[in-house]
Amino acid sequence: MTKLLFKYLSSRTGSGKTYSLLKVIKPGSRNVIATPRKAVSREIAAMFKDAGFSVKLITGKDGKDDDENSYSNCTKAFRDAIKADDHEIIIVDHSVAMKKISGTENYDLYIDEEPKIEKTVKLKSSLQIVQSILLSLFPDDIISDSHLYYKMTYTREIADLLSTFDDDEAFVPSQKLLELSQFMKSADYEVVIRGSSLKAYKEALKNDPETVKDMKLRFQVVMQPSVLSGYKSVTIMSAGFERSETYFAWHKKVDFVENDEMKPFLRSLPEGQKGLVHILYLSDELDTWADYKRLGYQDFLNRVAMAFDAAFPNTPHIYCVKKAKDEDGNAITPYTWLHDQTGLSQRLDPSAKGINGFQHINVAIHLTPINPATYVYNFKREFFEMQSEDVKMAVSYAAQYQFASRTSYRDYSSTSHVTIIVLDQRSAMALHEMFGEACAGEPEFFDIGLEELQSEKPKAMTV
């Protein structure tokens, strides 16, 4: 199998990866820029318009800040823009650019920030149509635990099953099942189910059918790099790309090479910003939601807020806390941050990828445990062949790094000291590695007065 060739641009946050596009995109060329957020799309559109390029901006309607560039069907708008072929720059969301659209063979694709290429689809195993599909694909009773994942293949029999509608509601395909079938049908996606889950399901169906109604089946859907094969070229711009999930998932099918044309335009860390980043951590080891739920998350947040105020009185900061949900994933009374009423704090998304506008802030407090569910963690480790530390880096530490980088660290003219507070020591050490020469020494323990947070008694920064 011939490998695809994709380019990448990997460097620290704030090094000008996006701005380097202005140096390499030529007038008269055809380009698609894919971004993770509407605000980022608008910023890039303004940048290229100011430089004299013809720009087509396509954003989704959300009922909040829609304008003349907002569309209810972004894919159609993108397809129309490609067909019209009258703009040098087309800017769309990741999800729109990463579809096969005819006519893109003359367009260079630039993906700003790492895209999401994997998702989980959950189905009720008690549905008769789900049972019929699995039995048609896997009639053999011998399902091996050692065969980690089984591929879901779209067949004529499945097509017939999905077209079957009768008076029994159980036979009406759900939206999730229809979505899954579309992924199965496409050569640009791979759908798999864990062997042990399939084995447990089939054994329950055979020996104790009553237990099946309480089971849920999880299917992992992975976008294949072939979905981007219609573009003239592909460049992914992301901090730490060589340790990203996309790299691990695709490297067997893609030759990744650095974009040597863009690389010379990246900015190195100014001398005046070296040694300005201070990293503090709140716990020696506690880094999971289970840990902080057991500890009492709201009480923990209150203690952090009070300790922070004592150590850094009246200090503006960005922060994140976990979204409050019940066991079924429904939103409940949100967790609170004591500084919300002071006007000093600004809550951001836990990854804050691509968000700008906070370069005047010198403190970032990341209080959200970011760990994938066990089944997701195992999937990334087994299917993508990632080491445990690679999964942590790609999921947890990368998000914390993006969040912490929203501060004055991004401002090249700033010589202010930056303080980053994270939950645990391992996260702090990972950030210390990622910020590199910007750091002002080893991470320190920030004592908020909870003995449960310490396994030993390190030298601590106390209030």
TrEMBL record:
<feature type="domain" description="ATP-dependent RNA helicase SUV3 DEXQ-box helicase">
    <location>
        <begin position="12"/>
        <end position="95"/>
    </location>
</feature>
<dbReference type="InterPro" id="IPR027417">
    <property type="entry name" value="P-loop_NTPase"/>
</dbReference>
<dbReference type="Pfam" id="PF22527">
    <property type="entry name" value="DEXQc_Suv3"/>
</dbReference>
<protein>
    <recommendedName>
        <fullName>ATP-dependent RNA helicase SUV3 DEXQ-box helicase domain-containing protein</fullName>
    </recommendedName>
</protein>
<dbReference type="InterPro" id="IPR055206">
    <property type="entry name" value="DEXQc_SUV3"/>
</dbReference>
